[in-house]
Amino acid sequence: MKKVVIQAAVVGLALVAGQFTGTARAEDPADRFSLTASAAVVSEYYFRGISQSLSDDDIKPAFQPGVEAGFKINDMVSAYAGLWGSNVDFNNGTSAETDAFTGFRFTMDKAALDLGYIYYGYLENNNSSQAYSEVKAVGSYDLGFVVPTVGAYYSPNYFADSGKALYVTGGVSVPIPVTDFQPKIVANVGHQSIDKNSAFGTKDYMDWNVGLYATFFGVTAGVQYVDNNLSKSDTPNTTCTSQGDPCSAAAVFSLAYSYTF
User: Fold this and answer.
1) pLDDT reported for residue 176
2) Which residues is 135 bridged to in the sheet?
Protein backbone atom coordinates (compact mmCIF):
# COMPACT_ATOMS: atom_id res chain seq x y z
CA MET A 1 0.00 0.00 0.00
CA LYS A 2 2.81 2.43 0.86
CA LYS A 3 4.42 1.74 -2.52
CA VAL A 4 1.17 2.55 -4.33
CA VAL A 5 0.74 5.79 -2.39
CA ILE A 6 4.33 6.87 -3.07
CA GLN A 7 4.05 6.11 -6.78
CA ALA A 8 0.77 8.02 -6.99
CA ALA A 9 2.34 11.03 -5.30
CA VAL A 10 5.33 11.02 -7.64
CA VAL A 11 3.10 10.67 -10.70
CA GLY A 12 1.02 13.61 -9.47
CA LEU A 13 4.18 15.69 -9.03
CA ALA A 14 5.26 14.80 -12.55
CA LEU A 15 1.93 15.89 -14.05
CA VAL A 16 1.96 19.19 -12.16
CA ALA A 17 5.56 19.89 -13.20
CA GLY A 18 4.73 19.00 -16.79
CA GLN A 19 1.78 21.37 -16.85
CA PHE A 20 3.90 24.14 -15.34
CA THR A 21 6.65 23.78 -17.94
CA GLY A 22 4.35 22.98 -20.82
CA THR A 23 6.14 19.71 -21.57
CA ALA A 24 3.80 17.09 -20.12
CA ARG A 25 3.67 14.00 -22.34
CA ALA A 26 1.37 11.04 -22.67
CA GLU A 27 3.99 8.61 -21.38
CA ASP A 28 3.70 5.65 -19.04
CA PRO A 29 5.03 6.95 -15.68
CA ALA A 30 6.73 3.57 -15.06
CA ASP A 31 9.00 4.24 -18.06
CA ARG A 32 10.30 7.36 -16.33
CA PHE A 33 11.72 5.45 -13.38
CA SER A 34 15.33 4.25 -13.36
CA LEU A 35 17.45 2.35 -10.86
CA THR A 36 21.26 2.40 -10.97
CA ALA A 37 23.44 0.11 -8.88
CA SER A 38 27.16 0.78 -8.56
CA ALA A 39 30.22 -0.66 -6.87
CA ALA A 40 33.79 0.61 -6.62
CA VAL A 41 37.06 -0.48 -5.04
CA VAL A 42 39.69 2.14 -4.22
CA SER A 43 43.19 1.62 -2.89
CA GLU A 44 42.52 4.32 -0.28
CA TYR A 45 39.41 6.41 0.42
CA TYR A 46 40.14 10.14 0.20
CA PHE A 47 37.49 12.80 0.90
CA ARG A 48 38.39 16.41 0.12
CA GLY A 49 42.09 15.68 0.27
CA ILE A 50 42.12 13.76 3.58
CA SER A 51 42.32 9.97 3.88
CA GLN A 52 39.35 8.24 5.50
CA SER A 53 40.86 4.73 5.55
CA LEU A 54 44.35 5.10 7.04
CA SER A 55 44.88 3.54 10.47
CA ASP A 56 48.26 3.88 12.19
CA ASP A 57 50.01 4.10 8.82
CA ASP A 58 48.19 0.95 7.64
CA ILE A 59 46.52 1.94 4.39
CA LYS A 60 43.23 0.13 3.90
CA PRO A 61 41.46 -0.29 0.55
CA ALA A 62 37.78 0.65 0.53
CA PHE A 63 34.74 -1.00 -1.00
CA GLN A 64 32.07 1.51 -1.99
CA PRO A 65 28.61 0.25 -3.09
CA GLY A 66 25.76 2.54 -4.04
CA VAL A 67 22.23 2.63 -5.41
CA GLU A 68 20.26 5.50 -6.94
CA ALA A 69 16.63 5.73 -8.00
CA GLY A 70 15.64 8.34 -10.54
CA PHE A 71 12.41 9.75 -11.92
CA LYS A 72 12.26 11.82 -15.10
CA ILE A 73 9.74 14.60 -14.50
CA ASN A 74 10.12 16.05 -17.99
CA ASP A 75 12.80 16.50 -20.65
CA MET A 76 14.69 19.01 -18.50
CA VAL A 77 14.09 17.96 -14.89
CA SER A 78 14.64 14.71 -13.03
CA ALA A 79 14.50 13.78 -9.35
CA TYR A 80 16.79 11.30 -7.65
CA ALA A 81 17.47 9.66 -4.29
CA GLY A 82 19.94 7.05 -3.17
CA LEU A 83 22.34 5.47 -0.71
CA TRP A 84 26.13 5.15 -0.77
CA GLY A 85 28.60 3.55 1.60
CA SER A 86 32.28 2.90 2.29
CA ASN A 87 34.42 1.34 4.97
CA VAL A 88 36.45 3.91 6.94
CA ASP A 89 38.91 3.95 9.83
CA PHE A 90 39.22 6.97 12.13
CA ASN A 91 40.96 5.06 14.97
CA ASN A 92 37.92 5.57 17.21
CA GLY A 93 35.76 2.54 16.47
CA THR A 94 34.09 3.98 13.39
CA SER A 95 34.18 1.37 10.64
CA ALA A 96 31.78 2.55 7.93
CA GLU A 97 30.27 5.63 6.34
CA THR A 98 26.68 5.46 5.12
CA ASP A 99 25.34 8.38 3.09
CA ALA A 100 21.78 9.16 2.01
CA PHE A 101 21.15 11.73 -0.71
CA THR A 102 18.37 13.26 -2.78
CA GLY A 103 17.89 16.13 -5.19
CA PHE A 104 16.95 17.40 -8.61
CA ARG A 105 18.96 17.54 -11.83
CA PHE A 106 18.24 20.14 -14.50
CA THR A 107 19.54 19.95 -18.08
CA MET A 108 19.22 22.41 -20.94
CA ASP A 109 21.19 21.69 -24.09
CA LYS A 110 24.80 21.32 -22.87
CA ALA A 111 24.29 22.87 -19.44
CA ALA A 112 23.50 20.88 -16.29
CA LEU A 113 22.68 21.79 -12.69
CA ASP A 114 22.43 19.47 -9.69
CA LEU A 115 20.70 20.73 -6.52
CA GLY A 116 20.80 18.23 -3.69
CA TYR A 117 20.95 17.23 -0.04
CA ILE A 118 23.41 14.74 1.51
CA TYR A 119 23.38 13.13 4.96
CA TYR A 120 26.69 11.60 6.09
CA GLY A 121 26.22 8.90 8.73
CA TYR A 122 28.73 6.59 10.45
CA LEU A 123 28.49 3.07 11.88
CA GLU A 124 30.08 1.72 15.07
CA ASN A 125 30.66 5.28 16.14
CA ASN A 126 31.02 6.18 19.81
CA ASN A 127 30.92 9.88 18.96
CA SER A 128 27.54 10.81 17.51
CA SER A 129 28.79 14.30 16.58
CA GLN A 130 30.54 12.87 13.51
CA ALA A 131 27.30 12.72 11.50
CA TYR A 132 26.35 15.83 9.51
CA SER A 133 24.43 17.03 6.47
CA GLU A 134 25.08 19.29 3.49
CA VAL A 135 23.18 20.98 0.70
CA LYS A 136 24.88 21.30 -2.66
CA ALA A 137 24.70 23.10 -5.98
CA VAL A 138 26.88 21.78 -8.81
CA GLY A 139 26.85 23.09 -12.39
CA SER A 140 28.59 21.98 -15.57
CA TYR A 141 28.71 22.84 -19.27
CA ASP A 142 29.80 20.43 -22.01
CA LEU A 143 32.05 22.25 -24.46
CA GLY A 144 32.91 19.01 -26.26
CA PHE A 145 36.67 19.16 -25.80
CA VAL A 146 36.31 19.91 -22.07
CA VAL A 147 33.55 19.85 -19.44
CA PRO A 148 34.13 22.48 -16.71
CA THR A 149 32.30 22.13 -13.39
CA VAL A 150 31.78 24.39 -10.37
CA GLY A 151 30.13 23.50 -7.10
CA ALA A 152 29.39 24.57 -3.54
CA TYR A 153 28.55 22.41 -0.50
CA TYR A 154 27.21 24.03 2.68
CA SER A 155 26.76 22.41 6.09
CA PRO A 156 25.05 24.13 9.04
CA ASN A 157 27.05 21.90 11.42
CA TYR A 158 29.96 20.06 9.86
CA PHE A 159 31.79 16.89 10.92
CA ALA A 160 32.47 16.58 14.69
CA ASP A 161 30.20 19.50 15.58
CA SER A 162 32.62 21.91 13.91
CA GLY A 163 29.96 24.46 13.02
CA LYS A 164 29.12 26.06 9.70
CA ALA A 165 31.24 24.91 6.77
CA LEU A 166 31.48 25.73 3.08
CA TYR A 167 33.32 23.71 0.43
CA VAL A 168 33.76 25.42 -2.95
CA THR A 169 35.20 23.43 -5.83
CA GLY A 170 35.95 23.72 -9.54
CA GLY A 171 37.25 21.24 -12.05
CA VAL A 172 37.46 19.99 -15.60
CA SER A 173 36.94 16.69 -17.38
CA VAL A 174 38.90 16.39 -20.63
CA PRO A 175 38.05 13.48 -22.98
CA ILE A 176 40.91 11.97 -24.96
CA PRO A 177 39.48 10.79 -28.33
CA VAL A 178 42.21 8.29 -29.17
CA THR A 179 40.78 4.83 -28.31
CA ASP A 180 37.50 3.02 -27.77
CA PHE A 181 38.09 2.98 -24.01
CA GLN A 182 36.86 6.56 -23.46
CA PRO A 183 39.95 7.82 -21.63
CA LYS A 184 39.66 11.17 -19.88
CA ILE A 185 41.65 13.41 -17.58
CA VAL A 186 39.81 14.76 -14.56
CA ALA A 187 41.19 17.53 -12.34
CA ASN A 188 39.66 19.40 -9.40
CA VAL A 189 40.62 21.99 -6.81
CA GLY A 190 38.62 22.94 -3.73
CA HIS A 191 38.64 25.09 -0.61
CA GLN A 192 37.14 23.94 2.70
CA SER A 193 36.27 26.62 5.25
CA ILE A 194 35.17 25.58 8.75
CA ASP A 195 33.70 27.71 11.54
CA LYS A 196 35.24 25.79 14.48
CA ASN A 197 38.66 24.69 13.25
CA SER A 198 39.71 23.27 16.62
CA ALA A 199 36.70 20.92 16.70
CA PHE A 200 37.37 19.63 13.18
CA GLY A 201 41.13 19.39 13.72
CA THR A 202 42.53 21.46 10.85
CA LYS A 203 42.72 25.02 9.65
CA ASP A 204 40.76 26.06 6.57
CA TYR A 205 42.51 24.35 3.70
CA MET A 206 42.73 23.70 -0.03
CA ASP A 207 42.84 20.32 -1.75
CA TRP A 208 43.42 19.25 -5.34
CA ASN A 209 43.56 16.13 -7.46
CA VAL A 210 44.19 15.03 -11.01
CA GLY A 211 43.44 11.62 -12.48
CA LEU A 212 43.31 9.51 -15.63
CA TYR A 213 40.32 7.23 -16.23
CA ALA A 214 39.37 4.74 -18.94
CA THR A 215 36.51 2.26 -19.38
CA PHE A 216 37.15 -1.39 -20.28
CA PHE A 217 34.11 -3.60 -20.94
CA GLY A 218 31.95 -1.48 -18.65
CA VAL A 219 34.52 -1.21 -15.84
CA THR A 220 36.13 2.18 -15.28
CA ALA A 221 39.73 2.05 -14.08
CA GLY A 222 41.47 5.12 -12.73
CA VAL A 223 44.61 6.45 -11.11
CA GLN A 224 44.50 9.75 -9.25
CA TYR A 225 47.00 12.01 -7.47
CA VAL A 226 45.50 13.62 -4.34
CA ASP A 227 47.05 16.38 -2.20
CA ASN A 228 46.32 19.40 0.03
CA ASN A 229 48.09 22.29 1.73
CA LEU A 230 47.90 20.79 5.26
CA SER A 231 50.87 19.58 7.29
CA LYS A 232 51.52 18.08 10.72
CA SER A 233 52.93 21.40 11.91
CA ASP A 234 49.60 23.20 11.36
CA THR A 235 47.71 24.29 14.49
CA PRO A 236 45.21 23.01 15.56
CA ASN A 237 45.90 20.34 12.95
CA THR A 238 45.24 17.25 15.10
CA THR A 239 43.48 15.48 12.23
CA CYS A 240 46.76 15.12 10.34
CA THR A 241 48.50 13.42 13.28
CA SER A 242 45.69 11.30 14.70
CA GLN A 243 46.25 8.20 12.53
CA GLY A 244 49.58 8.21 10.81
CA ASP A 245 49.41 11.04 8.27
CA PRO A 246 46.04 11.06 6.51
CA CYS A 247 46.78 14.53 5.12
CA SER A 248 49.76 13.44 3.06
CA ALA A 249 49.70 13.23 -0.74
CA ALA A 250 48.84 9.90 -2.29
CA ALA A 251 48.22 8.01 -5.51
CA VAL A 252 44.79 6.38 -5.49
CA PHE A 253 43.83 3.51 -7.78
CA SER A 254 40.20 2.64 -8.46
CA LEU A 255 37.91 0.22 -10.28
CA ALA A 256 34.22 1.08 -10.66
CA TYR A 257 31.15 -0.44 -12.33
CA SER A 258 27.55 0.71 -12.59
CA TYR A 259 24.43 -0.72 -14.20
CA THR A 260 21.11 1.02 -14.86
CA PHE A 261 17.99 -1.13 -14.85
Assistant:
1) 95
2) 117, 154
What is the pLDDT at residue 10?
41
Domain ranges of the chain: 33-260
Bond prior to 148 in cis (omega within 30° of 0): no
Question: In this structure, which CATH number among 1.10.1740.10, 3.50.90.10, 3.40.50.80, 2.40.160.160 belongs to the domain 33-260?
Answer: 2.40.160.160
Q: 2 falls in which pLDDT band (50, 70, 90)?
A: very low
How far, in Å, CA of 108 to CA of 100, rounded? Answer: 27
Distance linking the first and last C-alpha atoms of the chain: 23
By the 8 A CB rule, do 120 and 161 touch? no
Comparing 10-19, 49-58, 83-92, 209-218, the range with the smallest average pLDDT is 10-19
Parallel, antiparallel or unpaired: strands 219-228 and 205-216: antiparallel
- Which pLDDT does position 231 carry in this prediction? 84
Cβ neighbors of 185 (< 8 A, separation 6 or more) are 172, 173, 174, 176, 210, 211, 212, 213
